[in-house]
DNA sequence: TATTATTATCGTAATATTGCAATATAAAAT
DNA sequence: ATTTTATATTGCAATATTACGATAATAATA
């Protein structure tokens, strides 16, 4: 078929996978890092910095937004994207919990 | 086009994305968790537990193997998959570094 | 109001992923 | 040697993702 059978998996597993999917593209990793480093939060140079077309950047931003990682406000004529700190820490904890819960019983 | 332009991104960003991609499917998250919980490391019931066809499970295992997360040895007639502890901790550190390096300058 | 600058959406093509039936392979048991 | 049991590979169909040109929407500026 081709579509993921999400309904046969637990909510926890689906949620972790969904978050990982957002980080599963180098452009989105780069975008997150870049936004976090901008002091003034003016992000209209993302297109130049990343090197993808403007509609593509917009799509990637939308994927990041979907899991609640971005807050956007207006500052003059430019849209200002910032990282949602609370959500970011939430995701960090989810990942960390997953990583630390794995134990190594054999081999 | 459709293919990711990996060449325009840094090695760090590409590697993190590649790892995230493996975790970006609930079946693979579930598989990793299940394997880690099996004391005797006999994993031939993965097909029943996860609920996907045997070739599909095999493919997912292969994706996990590709990033070095699995060690496999034989025990009797059954193939025994275990988590590669060193690699696992390596990935945990990569993710943690990424998460903690992000700062929140604005908004 | 017209222009300019910036971001969003639409439409579409190329590529990747997911899933499984059929089949192959490998090792143990009969 | 043949059967059984478990995993891997192949081939293919369905769906998802990635990317961008064209265009729309939005807001500041002239």
List the quaternary state of the chains: homodimer
CATH superfamily of chain A: Winged helix-like DNA-binding domain superfamily/Winged helix DNA-binding domain
Percent helix range of chain A: 55-70%
Low-confidence segments of chain A: none
The biggest chain-chain interface is: A-B, 53 and 53 residues
Count of DSSP helices of chain A?
5
Rounded average pLDDT of chain A? 88
Number of strands of chain A: 2
Could you tell me the strand content of chain A as a percent range? 5-15%
Helix-strand topology string of chain A? HHHHEEH
Through-space gap between termini of chain A: 35 Å
Shape of chain A: elongated
CATH architecture label of chain A = Orthogonal Bundle
Total tally of structural domains of chain A: 1
Main β sheet profile of chain A: 2 strands, antiparallel
The structural class of chain A is mainly alpha
> What is the third-level CATH name, the topology of chain A?
Arc Repressor Mutant, subunit A
InterPro entries (chains A, B): ArsR-like_HTH (IPR011991), HTH_ArsR_DNA-bd_dom (IPR001845), HTH_MetalResp_TranReg (IPR051081), WH-like_DNA-bd_sf (IPR036388), WH_DNA-bd_sf (IPR036390)
GO molecular function, one term (chains A, B): DNA binding
Protein name (chains A, B): ArsR family transcriptional regulator
Domain HTH arsR-type (chains A, B): 8-103
